[in-house]
């Protein structure tokens, strides 16, 4: 979801930014609009390109790679990292650039896990070196992820059985344990009711379910919480609830 962010006059005179191509500078500003309260966002080059450069032909992967390279002070503009196969971006010095509104929701994305006994971009002790992951702006932190069956999670198993689009089960499970660390019967009852309603809509029936969101996306956005209220007509609820990913 895009957000309104600050763009200070210093952005245009920053000497480190001035060395970058025009589209890379615009990419950097565009990332701010898609970062959460802590300056983190999902590393999805194709999606971000569509949001930030909808009318231009831009190699967005190249722009992200450029921004992740160390600048003159030894730090990059962004750091790309991965936790449990989930690719993420952290905007460096986020608090220096932005002051999110106090009502903005806290970040739900996991932060970078510190690497022990590794030098930083700047101020390393003698003999210390940056890891290859840090030099490339990518910090890989992978831990084994048990399946829903191994965790004996009946709620996710039920969700997977009733959700009509069965694609990306592993990704959906990752989102489930992140978004719903303590699922209960009340939440599952909501999910059952909402999915039952949506399955009757033309949007979910159209083209054999082509426009049904991926289960991981549906979980990530907590779509079951978007219940209609008494003042909202059914058509209004459908339009809001069935927004494209």
For the secondary structure, the number of strands is 4
Helix content: 25-40%
**What oligomerization state is this entry in?**
single chain
β-sheet strand percentage: 5-15%
Cα distance spanning the termini:
10 Å
Give average pLDDT, whole number: 78
Uncertain regions spanning at least 5 consecutive residues: 116-138, 229-233
Taking the sheet with the most strands, its summary is: 4 strands, mixed
Describe the structure.
- This protein has 245 residues and is an alpha+beta fold.
- The protein folds into two domains: 9-141, no CATH class; 148-241, no CATH class.
- The protein contains 13 helices and four strands.
- A hairpin with a 2-residue loop joins strand 2 (78-83) and strand 3.
- Helix 2 crosses helix 4.
